Amino acid sequence: MLQLFRDVYRYRELIWALALKELRVRYKRSVLGFLWALLNPLMMMIILTLVFGSIMRFSIDHYAIFLLSMLLPWTFFSQALSYSVESVVGNAQLLKKVRVPKLVFPMAAVVANIINFLLSLLPLALLIVVLRFPLHWTWIYLPIPMVGLFLFTLGSAFFFAAINVFFRDISHIVQILLSAWFYASPIIYSLDFIPKKYHIFFRLNPMLYVLNGFRLSIYYGLLPSAGSIAMSLACGAAAVAIGFGLFRRYQDIFVFYI
């Protein structure tokens, strides 16, 4: 992991430039441009609030806030993974012509999406105020789960981007995996709704620990336990160690397969 930090610092300007380029391409020829980074989550929040606040009522108070507290970080994870899995293969022509550090491509995909995620927290805070839901002081804790989420996402991005170089089916498999993973994670429901005898299976899901801090801080106004914080950061660190380790081991032969 120390090598990753060195490489990220060394190529930080290139990573930032590629991340901004990806955002510009994403909003190219759009009249509102980068404003969609705010408008997309805002409109999604309005729709969810109307649907779950007026049409489909759940026993959970302010279900839209309950849902969004985990849905927004999950959306960052799923979008970052979807973009990064093709990041190396998608830059094949560049890699064949110029000597470029390969790690910058999945890294830039994750950075671009975390910018969107951070911007999406602004309309969430606005929605909370409009709905007169408590804006808990525990929001100041959010940088901690963000670190765990960023590390876990980055590790996953390196892992799948590397495998996709050799097996192009991975990009399709990832989409199926994300769909199944979404429903296996307590995002649209609370773990309390699941019979206790099945909790052991849910606790094998690393996203339970990675996302838990967001709901606790935003919806419940609570701080997670030290054990929960440790698990979140440990999941992120383990993902980076495995993902970057695999990526670094095979990156020198990527050019022969893309």
Helix content: over 70%
Count of all domains: 1
**Contiguous helical run count:** 12
Q: What is Rg? A: 19 Å
Shape: globular
**How many beta-strand runs?**
0
Q: What is the distance, rounded to the nearest whole angstrom, between the alpha carbons of the first and last residues?
A: 26 Å
Give the biggest beta sheet.
none
Secondary-structure element order, N to C: HHHHHHHHHHHH
Estimate the strand proportion: under 5%
> Which quaternary structure do these chains form?
single chain
Averaged pLDDT: 84
Assign the structural class, choosing from mainly alpha, mainly beta, alpha/beta, alpha+beta, or little secondary structure.
Answer: mainly alpha
- Unreliable residue stretches: none
Description:
This protein is mostly helical and 258 residues long. The chain has one domain. Helices cover 72% and strands 0% of the residues. The protein has helices at residues 2-10, 12-26, 36-55, 63-84, 87-90, 92-97, 104-130, 143-166, 170-184, 199-202, 206-220, 226-250. Helix 8 (143-166) runs parallel beside helix 12 (226-250) and helix 11 (206-220) crosses helix 12 (226-250).
Which features would summarize this protein structure in a list?
258 residues, mainly alpha, 12 helices
Task: Itemize the secondary structure elements and their pairings.
Elements: H1 2-10, H2 12-26, H3 36-55, H4 63-84, H5 87-90, H6 92-97, H7 104-130, H8 143-166, H9 170-184, H10 199-202, H11 206-220, H12 226-250
Task: Provide a concise account of the structure shown.
With 258 residues, the chain is mostly helical.
